[in-house]
# Entry
Amino acid sequence: MVQPFEFVDAIILAAGANTRLAGSVPSYMKPLLLSNGKPLIRHAIEHAEDDWRTDSTIIVASPNNIGMLVQVVPEKHPNWVIQPSPTGVIGAIHRGLNCLPHRVGKSAVLILCADNTFDSDTKGEFRKAVHSGIPHIATRHFQDNEATHRFTRLKYSEANTSYMIIDANDAQQSPLCWIGPLLLDAADVKQEITRVNSITQLIRATTQAGANLRTIPMQCSDLGILEELS
# Structure
């Protein structure tokens, strides 16, 4: 029987230069965009702590936005990590991992993007994911492979009764994509983080090529904001 995760620590990625919004939003400032009257970074923190009930939260920021972010984040969140140079998502996760508390017992790391938004219809699924002790990935179905080139794609494996990552050049493109958040076994992430170059490789390495990976359907991501500003 799979044991539940005893601890969940969050790493919120807020150091990106938001190149997709170049010309619409100043570089590194996307987490400050307002959604329902609140900066996206605050939505991410509340999602981690209220919906997933994380034990600690680390925010990885850039020297270019740390000064602005600290002004909109409640004072009870002092766990900031600076990513001094742009080394990508894996570099940011690595820096966050180095600052997580040492845990005795089975623990998970929850990886969130500071610029995601989240629907409220799946909140109950998050605690179920933690109790299951199995890695989970938040997904969204896209119509006609809309924008799937920007996302990690998955397909269902009948043999493993779970999901697996598919390569970008797979002839049978899947409309099911990872949009975040991502719940992985912390021990596996720490073991693989220096061996991988992308988030897709990390997911594949830490879930045994998908043999133990479940999904949480979500309806919202940063796409609405992207479309509004494009």
